[in-house]
Amino acid sequence: MNLRQQLAVIAGLLCLLPILVLRFALTLEESLRATQQANQLELSGFIGRALTDDLRHKLQTKSPYIIKNVQQPLILDGYSADWDELAWVQNTSPSLPARLKLAVRQEHLYLLIQATDDSIVYKRPGTLAEIFDRFDLVLYSAHEPVADYSIFSDGPGFLKLRGKTAELVTGFWQTDAAGSLLEIRVPLPEPLPADLQLNIVWLDVDQGGDRLFNRQQRLFFKEGQPLPLLFFDQELVKKIEELTPKSARLSIYMPSGQTLFELDKDYRRDIVEQKHPWRALVRKLLLLQTDSETWSRPTTDPMAAGEYSKAMHSSGKAENDQPYSHWQQTPNTHYASLTSHYPIIDPKNAPQPIAWVSIEKRTAQVAAVADAALFSVLSQLFVLVVVVMLILFGYASWLSWRVRHLKDKLVNGLDPESKFKKNFTPSNINDELGDLSRNFATMLSRLKNYADYMETFASKFAHECRTPLAIISSSLQLLENAKESREQQEYLQRAQTGTARISKLLTAMRQATQLEASIQQQEKSKLDLTEMVKTLGEAYKQLVLPANLQVHLPCHSLSVHANGDLLAQAIDKLVDNAKDYTPRGADITLGLKQSSSNVALWVENQGPLIPEELLDKLFDPFVSVRENSDEELHLGLGLLIVKLIAEYHNAEIRVQNLEHQNQPSVRFTILLPFTE
Fold first, then answer.
1. CA-based angle 407:410:413, to the nearest 5?
2. What pLDDT is attached to residue 368?
3. Does position 162 have pLDDT exceeding 80, yes or no?
4. Residue 128 CB-half CA count within 13 A
């Protein structure tokens, strides 16, 4: 799995954050829905108990016709468009070619009469005995009339009336293709009786030729009986309005499902909602997690409490007349309806309910995300995840580029054909990849040095071994021809000397290699360099004779973070090297000096200068300006060890040719990092 894939997995894990928030929102939604359901059911019960006495009084009449209380005024203009939502009264005589609609608003009874009559006889003005088409309307209470009106007209237009309170009755008589259409508004009697009944008689007069004939009296209702009426008066309507919460709809219906009263306070129901794609997406995600049985299917009239009641009773959810609630999705909207049903129990007729009260209130399908604050959190979290994912992918691309670039430079640097001739430029960025790049640069530098060393090793080693091998070869050849034992012993001695020299050469090389490995395993500590150099100087004074040793030290202690044994070994090598090149009686100086950033440790000897062409190669192996003898083998490894010890201490080593008062000298300096 590459770096981008790994970061893609991390980004995918970050996507769990919105999922966890959605799960929290779902849990919150379930809690809010349960709380809302319980509160609304309790409110339904409170309203039902508050209306129990009024409804018991209203429902005393058997088989009454329930008149709907309308909220909007009905315009009496002879047109029936504003009556479309009201049903026709079903109690009219089936043989009568007339239909009736009833409604109540405030303190008035509204009637719409549609009579099929192809011969309408209007009252002619100024006549008294003439017969004409008319409607007699009577309101009864306790079988006694409480209001009696005779309704007629002298032509299409406003009605003419006769009766005690005829001046309070208004209406309009309109002629249409089928016959007559009447809209009438009648004041309700005060006080309003509980057993109010209605009867309407249509006196139809037909005309043939020049005479009026066939005067008929037709009753609207079966068997000529008045129609018992049931409706809610203004005082009860006002009480219900006060009990109904805002943005809700209240319905009161019979156990059979017949609606008694409806009041709609959800005035924003018909307002087109604004679409929010992001909120819609969140709602869909949460609805996928919601139990499908929670929602019922929408009906053609989702506010019909009677339909709810029938459905609930048929499904057994209203068993034993217990209160219940249910949710319903609203088509083409993100709202849902919570409807709570509560039985109204008459204590005298318990436990059967006399009616049911229902409250429906619209709410967001996912109430938990309806709150703007939670939406804001979800939006910000989503944006944060997207930004983090983009940053991760950008960062992964950048890291991938750096890794590929580092790989390409490393491959080019290690190309055998280039033989380390291509430069490896390390990164200057201070991070792990930058450190890796710098370590690779150091490694390649060492590999280059090693490669250079190996390129010259064969020739240098062959050069060092050529003389002893030649001695051994010539001695063995002479040994074959020697006759005398003395000559044989001499030639054997020479061969042994050459063999010993090669053995010393291999031993010295092995020791140098082992020393380089052992240097890296040493530990550093705080070291008083002044005290150490002082002690070493006292010991060297006898060892450098017949030369003179001078020690120059500061008057205060200088501390460095170093390994004392390795530094002492480096000083030994430098002093031993200086002794070999110092003339008898000349000076060797061991000194120590502090600067602003480092401590300079030097060994200087009077004597011949080092050739300029060897100054840069002096610390390489097998480089030496000494003349080797049979007794001493000098491979130029001493200064290489000094260089390795200096590199271990992150120090710099220098060699300089100097001249003081026409006296040449050579100085080796180690610059150690200073420690406070």
1. 150
2. 46
3. yes
4. 0
Q: Which range is most confident: 296-300, 348-352, 606-610?
A: 606-610
Burial (CB count within 10 angstroms: exposed 0-12, middle 13-18, buried 19+), residue 48: buried
Q: How many CA atoms lie within 13 A of 550 on its CB side?
A: 10
Under 8 Å CB-to-CB from 103, ≥6 apart: which residues?
Answer: 67, 68, 69, 70, 74, 83, 86, 109, 110
Report angle CA 93, 98, 102 to the nearest 5 degrees: 90
What span, in angstroms and rounded, lies between the C-alpha atoms of 390 and 61?
Answer: 75
Cis amide prior to 323 (ω within 30 degrees):
no
User: Following DSSP, what letter does each residue of 261-289 receive, concatenated?
Assistant: EEEE--TTTTSPPPP-HHHHHHHHHHHHH
DSSP states of 346-398: -TTSTTSEEEEEEEEEEEESSGGGTSHHHHHHHHHHHHHHHHHHHHHHHHHHH
In sequence order, which residues have a C-beta less than 8 Å from that of residue 644 and are 6 or more positions away? 515, 516, 519
Tens digits of residue pLDDT in 532-553: 999 888 888 888 889 999 999 9
Task: Determine what percent of the chain is predicted with pLDDT higher than 90.
Answer: 11
Consecutive H or E run containing 40: helix 16-50
Q: Please state the three-class secondary structure of 524-535 as a single string.
A: CEEEEHHHHHHH
Q: How confident is the model at residue 171 (pLDDT cuts 50, 70, 90)?
A: very high
* Burial (CB count <10 Å: 0-12, 13-18, 19+), residue 333: middle
* Helices 432-481, 485-519: crossing angle, 10 deg rounding: 170
* Helix or strand run (H / E) with residue 592: strand 587-594
* Ordered DSSP codes for 394-441: HHHHHHHHHHHHHHHHHHHHT-TTTTT-S--------SHHHHHHHHHH
* Phi, psi (rounded to 5 degrees) for 41: -65, -40
Least confident of 287-291, 379-383, 397-401: 287-291
- 142: tokens are 């306790």
Taking the C-alpha atoms of residue 83 and residue 176, their distance in angstroms, rounded to an integer, is 16
pLDDT of residue 208: 55
Contact between 475 and 492 (Cβ < 8 Å): yes
* Closest C-alpha to 579, from 491, 458, 666: 666
**pLDDT level of residue 406 (50, 70, 90 thresholds):** confident
Both tokens of 422, joined, read: 């291509």
**pLDDT number for residue 395:** 78
Least confident of 49-58, 117-126, 451-460, 547-556: 451-460
- For residue 600, name the pLDDT band (cuts at 50, 70, 90): very high
> How is residue 292 annotated by DSSP?
G
The single-letter DSSP state of residue 321 is G
Radius of gyration of the chain (CA): 59
Which tokens belong to 457? 């090793």
∠ CA 608-612-613, rounded to 5°:
125
Bond from prior residue into 351 cis (ω within 30 degrees of 0): yes
pLDDT of 520 above 60: yes
Structure tokens of 569? 């070994």
Please list, residue by residue across 560-596, b when 16 or more beta carbons sit within 10 angstroms of its beta carbon and e when fewer do.
Answer: bebbbebbbbbbbbbbebbbebbeeebbbbbbbeeee
User: What is the pLDDT at residue 110?
Assistant: 94
Question: If DSSP codes are grouped into helix, strand and coil, which group holds residue 66?
Answer: strand
Work out the burial of residue 208: count CB atoms within 10 Å of its CB; fewer than 13 is exposed, 13-18 middle, 19 or more buried: exposed
